[in-house]
Amino acid sequence: MDIKESLNKLIEENKSKLRFISFSDPVIVKAHQLLNDKCDDNQVFITEGLWSVPKIIYNKCKVEAFIFCPESIRSQDGIDAIKTFLKTTPVYVISEKVLNKLTKRNDDNGIYCIVKLPKYDIKSILARPKSLVCILDGIEKSGNIGTILRTADATNTDLVMIVNRRAKVTNTQCVKGSMGGIFDVPVITYDNIQDCWQDLKSNGYTVYLADTRAEIDYFNYKYADKVALVMGSERYGISRDWYSQPNQLLKLKMLGQCDSLNVGVATSVLLYDIKMKQLGE
């Protein structure tokens, strides 16, 4: 039995569970809003394609809706994904016409998952005796946040804190850029720096500010057991409020003509250095 026959058989056997919907259906309206970063619900995000399915399942993420277009299912992996979500999740079927309205991308993608952001016990994370926390202050591009989440996953960074939020974690560029980091890296957003600082202070963190004006290069530091690394906006830098609190400045030495690195790249370098030193490597 080929893929198309298998898919048709699966659809026929599960007609009572599947929901065939149009572009005006609230689920598609929400999906369209998420894809265009216009959704007011900051606790959900959307993924496109099969790449996210294994990560969603592995991390036991809560999925609000699984949406697929039959004409876009071209592999056994796609059929297996439908079977998996039929057990636990509302599954919606859309036509090619609806798919073309939903996305402007000219490819075979026709699978979407609307996923709830995972929830974590932030207090217990901050209380760990040895940990690495990354604070993103006013980062303006969701793609950069996604890159940092990807690095945070790779370095087993304990927590990402966001202050002065100017970009959404739920933006599709962030989701794609994280390459799955959004599924397992704890993220918390603070309304102000003072609340963030108080949590760090009460849990014994040493705060390091990435600043090109620093006198000490990052590789000359012997970091504390509990590190909070603050990265600022490429345009405005780190907010002045951080400098009125106890801190240590570090820098990435620039040997060429450019005065700084992209914030995603700079954060990756620093997180790896800190983590390796914490591990004694």
In summary, what is this structure?
With 281 residues, the chain is an alpha/beta fold. The protein has eleven helices and eleven strands.
Strand and helix layout:
Blueprint: H1 3-13, E1 19-20, H2 26-35, E2 44-48, H3 53-58, E3 63-68, H4 76-86, E4 91-93, H5 96-102, E5 111-116, H6 122-126, E6 131-137, H7 142-154, E7 159-163, H8 172-178, H9 181-184, E8 187-189, H10 193-202, E9 206-210, E10 226-232, E11 248-250, H11 263-278
Parallel strand pairs: 1-4, 3-4, 6-7, 6-10, 7-8, 9-10, 9-11
Antiparallel strand pairs: 2-5, 3-5
Helix pairs in contact: 7-8, 7-11
Helix content range of the residues, please? Answer: 25-40%
Number of strands: 11
What number of domains?
Answer: 2
Q: What value does the average pLDDT take? A: 91
Spatial strand order of the main sheet:
8-7-6-10-9-11
Question: Can you put this structure into words, describing what you see?
Answer:
This protein is an alpha/beta fold and 281 residues long. It has 2 domains: 3-116, 60s Ribosomal Protein L30, Chain: A (2-Layer Sandwich); 122-278, Alpha/beta knot. 36% of the residues lie in helices and 19% in strands. It has 11 helices and 11 strands. The chain has a 6-stranded parallel sheet, sandwiched between helices. Strands 1-4-3-5-2 form a 5-stranded mixed sheet, sandwiched between helices. The mean pLDDT is 91.
Relevant terms:
281 residues; alpha/beta; Alpha/beta knot; 5-stranded mixed β-sheet; 11 strands; elongated
